[in-house]
């Protein structure tokens, strides 16, 4: 089936994905407004699906698009940008063929059913990035990460971090302890009963410790949280019907079923030993993303999630790839308290009543209490079934107030990333990449972290349209 986007009949955001994104080499970025802060020095990396169409055929789900990396370098000499596709084996083969060849999360391989058995799922390398001292990892949770050159974004190849078997999953949501420089992550290996593989790495990314846990069935686990001395997993009430997915009768997305009777399963793991502390169960919900976690003075684990009532979010995200959505999927920033030693949830509290996604905190606060949570949000009055996220915000947990940056009509920011000023640790900046549907252009906007509702302190022009991305990472300057 051929899907095409008709810009005149769709919302403005559809223009950002109407055509495959165009790469651009290292290019000086002009300042459109304001001034680059003197203490903002480092590189912003962002990853997301840059290509959603080949030969007139669109992908089956937004998650299927080929990964493309944006790097924005803030230096004393000015700001430069680079945008390149990750040169995965699948991307190169499909580019040579001029058509889709592989299945993915939301699509099966084209042609007869035996094509599903002959061709593996393509590693799209499209979900997130992790900047290490000597390389950049392009992350996709269904396989090994790809290593890229930090400066040129040239693809160096698959990277097993010294311990990953070939094609073993490595999640797109590693957690980095800013103080110890340890990196924690996981990978889910499917089977009749899935295996949860948990990894601890040193600051170079090399895996130095790992553990395995057997789960019931195959749940969908996209993210987890570091909370003090614990790694905490919420296994949502979604299960994979593995047989049709494995034999090619359906895509993985189509084979995922909402099963509220399964509840939310909870695993608490000790970060030092990677041993199981407890298992628990709570009412059913779904979350793609965790905001942060910590252990409070009473010994309770406090975990913030972007919570959905069910799994309709998957249908909505499938529709995004077509350029037109109609499925509502409200997501609420929610705080969960639980007893780590028993896995028992003691409270579940929505923090405010606005639909949001991509919650995060300053990197220095990962795993410990943070006054602020940053997130993408919808502007007031937005029909969330028709639009994609179109504003950013900061929630103050002390005052329980939300500060919102309203970017105006037809502008769509990426997940906001808070970063610390290199000269003043009390100062933070919030970076986002904005698609402006009014001018069909993309820009980098920099906000003062304490004045998110004020005008950006700086706007930088990009040489081409950068489609909405999923996740990013900041590497501060070493100088």
Summarize the structure in words.
- This protein is mainly β and 479 residues long.
- Helix content is 6%, strand content 43%.
- The protein has a single domain (7-476), classed as Methylamine Dehydrogenase, Chain H.
- The protein contains 4 helices and 34 strands.
- The strands form 8 sheets. It has a 7-stranded antiparallel β-sheet, with no helix packed on it. Strands 2, 29, 30, 31, 32 and 33 form a 6-stranded antiparallel β-sheet that branches.
- The radius of gyration is 21 Å and the shape is globular.
- The termini are far apart.
What topology emerges from the helices and strands here?
Blueprint: E1 24-28, E2 31-34, E3 42-51, E4 53-54, E5 57-58, E6 66-75, E7 78-85, H1 89-97, H2 114-118, E8 128-131, E9 136-139, E10 146-148, E11 155-158, E12 175-176, E13 183-189, E14 195-201, E15 207-214, E16 225-227, E17 230-235, E18 238-240, H3 242-247, E19 256-258, E20 264-270, E21 276-282, E22 286-295, E23 301-308, H4 312-320, E24 331-339, E25 344-360, E26 372-377, E27 391-396, E28 401-406, E29 411-413, E30 417-420, E31 428-436, E32 441-448, E33 458-461, E34 471-476
Antiparallel strand pairs: 1-7, 2-33, 3-6, 3-34, 4-5, 6-7, 8-9, 9-10, 10-11, 12-13, 13-14, 14-15, 16-17, 17-20, 18-19, 20-21, 22-23, 23-24, 24-25, 25-26, 26-27, 27-28, 29-31, 30-31, 31-32, 32-33
């Amino acid at each position: 089936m051929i899907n095409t986007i008709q810009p005149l009949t769709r919302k403005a955001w559809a223009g950002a994905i109407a055509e495959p994104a165009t790469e651009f080499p290292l290019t000086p970025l002009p300042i459109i407004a304001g001034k680059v802060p003197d203490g903002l020095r480092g590189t912003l990396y962002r990853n997301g699906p840059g290509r959603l169409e080949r030969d007139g055929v669109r992908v089956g789900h937004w998650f299927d698009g080929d990964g493309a990396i944006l790097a924005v370098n803030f230096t004393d000499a000015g700001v430069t940008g680079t945008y390149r596709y990750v040169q995965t084996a699948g991307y190169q083969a499909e580019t040579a063929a001029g058509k889709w060849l592989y299945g993915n999360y939301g699509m099966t391989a084209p042609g007869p059913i035996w094509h599903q058995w002959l061709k593996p799922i393509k590693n799209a390398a499209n979900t997130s990035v992790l900047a290490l001292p000597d390389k950049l990892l392009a992350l996709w949770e269904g396989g090994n990460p790809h290593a890229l050159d930090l400066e040129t974004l040239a693809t160096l190849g698959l990277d097993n971090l010294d311990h990953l078997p070939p094609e073993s999953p490595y999640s797109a949501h590693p957690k980095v302890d800013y103080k110890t420089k340890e990196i924690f992550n996981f990978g889910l290996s499917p089977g009749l009963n899935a295996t949860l593989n948990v990894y601890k790495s040193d600051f170079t990314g090399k895996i130095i410790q790992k553990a395995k846990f057997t789960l019931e069935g195959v749940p969908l686990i996209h993210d987890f949280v570091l909370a003090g001395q614990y790694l905490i997993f919420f296994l949502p009430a979604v299960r994979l019907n593995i047989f049709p997915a494995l034999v090619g009768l359906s895509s993985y997305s189509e084979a995922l079923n909402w099963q509220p009777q399964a509840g939310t399963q909870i695993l608490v793991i000790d970060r030092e030993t990677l041993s199981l502390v407890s298992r628990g169960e709570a009412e059913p919900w779904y979350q793609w993303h965790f905001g942060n976690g910590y252990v409070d003075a009473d010994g309770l684990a406090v975990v913030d999630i972007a919570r959905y009532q069910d799994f309709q979010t998957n249908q909505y995200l499938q529709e995004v790839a077509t350029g037109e959505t109609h499925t509502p999927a409200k997501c609420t920033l929610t705080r969960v308290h639980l007893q780590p030693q028993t896995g028992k949830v003691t409270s579940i509290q929505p923090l405010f009543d606005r639909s949001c996604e991509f919650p995060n905190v300053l990197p220095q606060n990962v795993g410990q209490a943070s006054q602020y949570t940053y997130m993408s949000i919808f502007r007031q009055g937005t029909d969330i079934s028709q639009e994609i996220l179109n504003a950013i915000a900061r929630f103050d947990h002390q005052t329980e107030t939300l500060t919102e940056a309203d970017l105006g009509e037809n502008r769509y920011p990426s997940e906001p990333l808070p970063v610390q000023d290199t000269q003043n640790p009390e100062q933070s900046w919030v970076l986002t990449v904005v698609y402006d549907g009014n001018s069909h252009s993309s820009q980098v906007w920099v906000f003062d972290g304490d004045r998110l509702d004020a005008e950006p302190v700086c706007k930088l022009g990009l040489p081409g349209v950068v489609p909405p991305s999923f996740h990013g990472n900041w590497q501060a300057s070493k100088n």
